[in-house]
């Protein structure tokens, strides 16, 4: 491992226990300020935030307009309970979002504080939809073997990120979840299969799983529109989600799309599902980029079909969390939406994303250990494999993703690292998810630093990799 490993060795070279609020083992760098795409560390060094934290800082750091909006909200009122009250920040945020989502049938918004809570709440909403419809036998969820939906009990139960799950399996997690294959062409599409055939096979597998479970017992199918944390930026094959929607409709099963990581404009459209054809989710989660990191906020967008059933049911939505729709979170997210809109950042992300793709492919496309570069907009994943021809991943002990992460950080670039977790087939990866405000020059610099980091790791591994 490099001597100046990012978060695993203390500044004085000794291994210290990490800060309790983060981890018992790791010691993160202390950040003292942020501005635009840059973070400044306590030792004075400047880091380009090439991943916006974890695809969070959608308009960059230190935006004064957002800061003012939060201060204004605190001056007006810091807190109200949603049982009785709302605020203009919450209402206007809901209006902004549903204006974008109404064409896709999503007409109501509900705000919580994190993506995990948003997932738990959608799972409850989905069950309540069937409950109000008298379909009490619907008790199961179907998810995918390449999914991260959060760290709370419900969200983790529909996730398949094994390292994060294993200690709790059989003790805390729900056992009414089954899994189908991810839409992961790099590892899943057969050589003799077209993209359409691959999508059709996956949809058939989902249909078969519904049949196996008894379709009348399934509440919902849960999927990230574009896979994030467990396998970097896996975009689905053409026609996949349209097919999924049809199969769900065939059995009255709800479709929950998780866009906590890939949504909020990061992929060049506000919702990542927009280019996927005729796909109208029943429930959709947003998080991370929604508040751009300025406050903890996440959201759920709910289809009119679900709203109608809940409205005629026994209660509205039996989900009361003290800090839901927190005024400061809503004010922050509203201000972020206004910046995105005024500066036309989502459309620009689409165009600049093509530039970023070109640069990434020319820098790393032919590199020895780069298996695939994939993504869209400002959400790019690089999967590393030991052998390109067979797509064989590195052994976990190589910790390739951590090496790249550390080498990039040493050179002043933050990227989001991840390791393969599915059936032992996929490799380590990095995610590049810069603020949508990044200029072409800044994107170019990120790619240059990433390439330097990659070259250093390739050299460091040298002939030890057989
Ligand atoms: N869903 C997805 C797709 C995510 O990537 C994440 C976070 N990585 C979550 C849900 C959970 O969000 P949070 O960490 O805000 O609870």
From TrEMBL:
Annotated GO molecular function terms are: pyridoxal phosphate binding; transaminase activity
Q: Does the keyword Signal apply?
A: no
This protein's record includes keyword Secreted: no
- Gene Ontology CC: cytosol
Database matches in CDD domains: OAT_like
Keyword annotations: Pyridoxal phosphate
Cross-referenced InterPro entries, in alphabetical order?
Answer: Aminotrans_3, PyrdxlP-dep_Trfase, PyrdxlP-dep_Trfase_major, PyrdxlP-dep_Trfase_small
Stated family? Belongs to the class-III pyridoxal-phosphate-dependent aminotransferase family.
PANTHER family on file: AMINOTRANSFERASE, AMINOTRANSFERASE CLASS-III
User: Mind telling me what this protein is named?
Assistant: Aminotransferase
Q: Which organism is it from?
A: Hypocrea atroviridis (strain ATCC 20476 / IMI 206040) (Trichoderma atroviride)
The record lists the lineage as: Eukaryota, Fungi, Dikarya, Ascomycota, Pezizomycotina
